[in-house]
Amino acid sequence: MFRIINIGTLSQNKFWGEKARMREDISATCTLLDVGECRLLVDPSPRRELLERLLFNRAGLRPDAIDAVYVTHWHGDHLFGLRLFEHATWLMAEAGIAEWRECAPEYRHLSDRFQPAEQALPEGIELFAAPGHTLTLAALKTETPWGSLIITGDGVMNREYFAAEEGYHNSIDFELAAATIRSIKAAADLVIPGHDNVLLNAR
Ligand SMILES: [Zn+2]
Questions:
Q1: pLDDT per residue over 119-145, tens digit each?
Q2: What's the rounded Cα separation, in Å, for the pair 38 and 30?
Q3: Is 83 a residue whose pLDDT tops 90?
Q4: Does domain 2-200 have CATH number 3.60.15.10?
């Protein structure tokens, strides 16, 4: 079972004609994956009070019902609400943890608490490499009754960036970002972007 807890927003979207920062209250899309023995929350956003309310309103759950939190990449908007889940296991791809420690050593008090997701994800949920936005961004892939689902983090920003096969303006490598979107298009029937509602992908 998957459920969107929060639909993320972008500070600016060039496909809407926006050339500067238009929104301050941005957040990332947050998804709950419930695989029976584990309730996994992907990209805990927005900030804690709102995320706590959304988790209850959208899924009837309190933060202590979450077993593990997975973060696709280390950018702050994807872990705004992390501290709500002090009791849970914090997971990120091993290379992502290393990149975070190198790029933002001031956050070692958080990054040091993360465990490599490679060995710790519940059965049926796997990592899907999605570099370009950052070099180590790792999406999650799982099977649903409606086909393959990929939760992309910022591997896909939103509907328009997905259609254009384009990375957001802060991407590290635009060619890699485009190749990642093409690989997601080839592998997924359902796509949950980093900053949009779920998209249907006709393959
Ligand atoms: Zn990001």
A1: 999 999 999 999 999 999 999 999 999
A2: 16
A3: yes
A4: yes
